[in-house]
Amino acid sequence: MSQEISREDGLLQLVTFHIGEEEFGVDILAVQEIIRLMQITPVPRAPIYIDGVINLRGKVIPVVNMRARFSLPAQEATPQTRIVVMEFDQKIVGFLVDAVSEVLRIPSSTVEDPPPVVAGIGSEYIRGVGKLDERLLILLDLDRLMSHLDIDGL
Length: 154
Fold this sequence. Notes:
Layout: E1 7-8, E2 11-19, E3 22-27, E4 31-36, E5 50-56, E6 59-65, H1 66-69, E7 82-88, E8 91-97, E9 99-107, E10 111-112, E11 117-118, E12 121-122, E13 126-132, E14 135-140, H2 142-147
Parallel strand pairs: 3-14, 6-8
Antiparallel strand pairs: 1-2, 2-3, 2-9, 4-7, 5-6, 7-8, 10-13, 11-12, 13-14
């Protein structure tokens, strides 16, 4: 069962962020908070895309490196690097992203079905592609993305 993106009078409410050259969006209701990069403790034998765990106000949260998850080359953290803390299916996970862009409201009419492959990411993780003036925004399907993550044993 796929979650619906928050709609307000035909508008989608999204938090947008960059991974490599691409801009992605997720439903604002899934985002708990956005934090600066903090100490990440590695976890032995974790999948390659799990950088480790963080302690956020007493909660241990796994951190998914989205560059690794989408098979992009590693990159050193910058002052813009952020962890987007999201909750879905009663699990809290941090997504390590290159930069957070903004909170957007876009008309749902600007969103098209995803093409077969976008930026090397299989279309099974993409809910749609939003057209915004001179840029494209890839809307991630968190349910599908998270269902393929192995975070239960962390």
